[in-house]
Amino acid sequence: MANDDVVIRFNNVSFEYSREKPILDEASFAIRKGTRITLMGQNGAGKSTILNMITGEMKPGSGSIFVDPKLKIAYAKQVIPREDMEITVKEFFEKCFSEKIYNIDPKIDDVLEIVNLKAPHDKIIKTFSGGQQARLLLASALIQDPDILILDEPTNNLDKAGIEHLTGFLMMYDKTAIVISHDADFLNAFTDGVIYLDVFTHKTDQYVGDYYTVVEEIAAQIEKERRKNAQYEKEIIANKEKANFFANKGGKMRLVARKMRTKAEEMEASKVDVRREDKAIRDFEIPSQPDLVGPILTISSFSIMQSHELVKKERKVVLRKKEHLLIKGPNGIGKSTLIESLATGKAEGSEVAEGVKIGYYRQDFSTLDFEDTVYESLRKAMKGDDEEKLRSVAAGFLLTKEIISTKIGNLSEGQKGLVAFAQLVLSEPGLLILDEPTNHINFRHLPVIAKALDQYEGAMILVSHVPEFVDQVRIDQILDLEE
Questions:
Q1: What does the pLDDT average to over 187-208?
Q2: Same domain for 209 and 322?
Q3: How many structural domains are present in the chain?
Q4: The dihedral of CA 325, 326, 328, 332: what is its sign?
Q5: How far, in Å, CA of 214 to CA of 192, rounded?
Q6: Last residue of a domain, one of 167, 198, 215
Q7: Can you give the pTM of this predicted structure?
Q8: 201-242: per-residue pLDDT in tens?
Q9: Residue 181 sits in a domain of what CATH number?
Q10: Distance in Å from the first CA to the final CA of the chain
């Protein structure tokens, strides 16, 4: 394509939050008009930072960024800002424009139809489910009719139907799109290329092809680099052994030994830095509250949302120690509302046994205090006072010495999720309640998390729209709210 087709270009861009926290190191890549690009990288690598630089919200420390000034950008972030939770649907869409848009209601209806959501314009944002909020985020970008559409984890909270609808939309989308997601099948359906941000080197590589092709190419490149280095290593050892042998002979042999050592040093310098795989969190166990006997949770009735009205349902569910319950249902039916009421003790028709400690993983991380540092957050959750244990658990969740002193509000969404899991490990709950625990989490961590949940010996309630994840977790009972 001609150079005129480039709509975004990063040229040797570097950025750091502090000297201890570099994000980009001379990153260079170009995005052409009409392509659909995936941005890959580990939790906390800086993917969202790149998106914020594209929109101009953040500026590079050095290097240059070109974004075609004639083009309009719309950015659907991972979560709706907290300050927007109390406003209506109409006010939420009005905030998408810098000037007043007259007769905006038909535009709202049109864009809600695209994302397959029925939403009264006077309804408050916080009353929508997580999946419905994900659709609102996408709609808030589309209503701006952008030339460049940016989506950050758009499948989070979406049910199967929602993901299929979004996938079909992006496959037909004829403008430029940049997407961050940990859902491999979703990405593979529409991706033209990948920009890979390496969390260790802080550099970017650019690949052309669908998602699975690029992942295979990266794996092949790593294997090639490893084989090359292994061959160098064998020759380095052989030359060092020869050098030692000749050095002991004395006389002219010492000159030969020096040449052998020089050759070994040259080979050492020729070894390439093999790209390190994204780290996965360590295997972990969520200890259960001891001495639990009898029913831990009893549900007799609950309410679900049908056609924007609450409808009471009766169904007997009893959870005891070592029993796991999966709650199913489409977006908007009331799964998150139900488990929040169970977690807070406000559920009518349900009872948690006295003295049972509840561990609650919320999909929006609102159980975390965003002003706390990671250390303070873990310290509050911890049972007892064991500094060594706290830091060991934190390290297992990749919460390094640098991250542990960072405020929760400054972490990536994926890192907040890891903090929430670390809290559960330290708090030893008797009843574990998890609302979409795969959201924002690096796919490498998911088998480790599934294993820990599968082996949890307290009572557990799980809500998840990711069947591949649910299949790895022991489920004893299913409560389908739609039945």
A1: 88
A2: no
A3: 2
A4: positive
A5: 10
A6: 215
A7: 0.69
A8: 888 989 888 888 887 887 787 788 778 777 877 887 877 877
A9: 3.40.50.300
A10: 53
